Amino acid sequence: QVQLVESGGGLVQAGDSLRLSCAVSGRTVSTYDMGWFRRAPGKEQEFVAHIRWSGTITDHADSVKGRFTISRDSAKNTVYLQMNSLKPEDTAVYYCAVFRRPFSSSWYNQPSEYGYWGQGTQVTVSS
Fold first, then answer.
1. What is the mean pLDDT of the segment spanning 70-96?
2. Distances in whole angstroms, Cα of residue 38 to Cα of each of 48, 56, 74, 86, 100
3. Which residues contact 94 (CB under 8 A, 6 or more apart)?
4. What percent of the chain has a predicted confidence (pLDDT) above 70?
5. Which residues, 6+ apart, have CB-to-CB distance to 43 below 8 Å?
6. What is the CA radius of gyration of the chain?
7. How far apart are CA 109 and CA 62, in angstroms?
8. What angle is formed at CA 66 by the lines to CA 65 and CA 69, rounded to 5 degrees?
9. Mean pLDDT, rounded, for 81-90
């Protein structure tokens, strides 16, 4: 059984910071690629960040580069999304997800590459 438990969302003001956590069970973050996605009201699901199973390569969407950082703690089997300089347009439900297969692909920005998803955590940024 694969489970992803997210935490860390909340209501903050523009310019504030949050750190989202995704505790994973059933799969190890040192074996599977992990990603963060978000969905704002009335918008399509959007890729946010990805970390390769090796932990040495990451990618972030252009809209969050320089502000958001994906990382992991292998000992805790947990993936994080550090969000700095938050903007109102970052308001969304944020989801973490784990790859379907225990190897990387070129399609890590596509939801179809991920087999399991967390419950989502709401991030609201006021202006």
1. 98
2. 7, 23, 23, 14, 19
3. 6, 9, 20, 36, 37, 38, 48, 81, 120, 121, 122, 123
4. 100
5. 92
6. 13
7. 12
8. 80
9. 98
